[in-house]
Design a protein that fits this description.
GO terms for molecular function: DNA-binding transcription factor activity; sequence-specific DNA binding. Keywords: DNA-binding. By secondary structure, the chain is α+β, with helices and mostly antiparallel strands. About 45% of the residues lie in helices and about 20% in strands. It contains 9 helices and 8 strands. The chain is globular.
């Protein structure tokens, strides 16, 4: 049976099942982690079919629809962040790092590799850590009213961090050409530090990637067909759209968080770049 340990985060666990009903949370889910502890079968995601095996992990974003067809008895755990979790922030316990969690998820949401849905890992230890943390959250789930919010909070923080880190690894691995791989590393760095404008200056990026200050912009445009400045602004505006859609943050709050002078500055930039 599903249960919300934290309001608007749903934990579901199924043991040794061969039939899975359609999930009623699909239309109100913002982000989901699906872990197959055991069993084999296929999972149909947005009309495409993928096989799953023991220890397979999938991530889903808004509007994803999936159906599990088990071939052998299957045990799964799902952790679902509902859309309302990031809207009713005033009702959440003060200890929860809600904004940090949203940043991790939006990083995944705006990555091309999230379209793969099934997680791949840079190394075996990351996958082991992730499955252990999912099991830890599930153990607290079984304790019913005796669960430990500290364990759940920190486990979820590390789970999201591990997923975001390995999504970046997938982005880099998908670039087979060395030069393209370097571009991907620059892009990953921009995404990871998008809330820290000081780290995204041309001077700092040039130092970080051991390039001349007057060359990195030219290099970036040569390999992406867009200027470095425009790429950073466009990515920020993507995050603005995501936050307007899924959170209750005011325009002025979003502007401050993303390094704009004020809401008027953000508004003018948005109109200039997005029409």
């Amino acid at each position: 049976m599903p249960r919300t340990i934290i309001e608007n985060i749903v934990i579901q666990e199924y043991k040794d099942q061969t039939f899975f009903e359609f999930c009623k949370y699909t239309t109100i889910r913002f982000f989901e982690i699906l872990y197959f502890e055991k069993g084999t079968g296929i999972i149909k995601i947005n009309g495409k079919t993928v096989t799953y095996t023991p220890n397979s992990i999938f991530v889903f974003v808004p509007d994803d629809i999936y159906i599990v067809n088990a071939k052998t008895a299957t045990s799964t755990v799902t952790i679902k962040f509902l859309k309302s979790f990031f809207r009713n922030t005033n009702s959440q316990p003060a200890v929860l790092p809600v904004n940090d969690w949203f940043r991790k998820i939006e990083e995944i949401l705006n990555s091309e590799s999230h379209q793969l849905r099934e997680m791949k890992f840079e190394n075996a230890s990351d996958k082991l850590h992730l499955t252990s943390l999912i099991n830890m959250v599930t153990t607290e789930y079984h304790k019913k009213q005796f669960y430990d919010i500290f364990i759940i909070q920190n486990s979820l923080s590390v789970i999201l961090h591990l997923i975001a880190r390995n999504i970046q690894f997938l982005n880099s691995e998908s670039s087979k050409v060395t030069e393209s791989s370097k571009i991907q590393k620059i892009i990953n760095y921009i995404h990871s530090n998008i809330y820290n404008s000081e780290l995204l200056t041309t001077k700092h990026l040039a130092e970080e990637f051991h390039m001349a200050g007057n060359y990195i912009s030219e290099y970036f445009k040569k390999h992406t067909d867009v200027s470095l400045k425009k790429y950073i602004i466009n990515y920020k505006l993507k995050l603005v759209e995501t936050r307007l859609k899924y959170t209750d943050l005011q325009f002025s709050e979003i502007a401050t968080e993303l390094g704009f002078t004020d809401s008027s500055h953000l508004n003018k930039t948005f109109l200039s770049y997005k029409g």
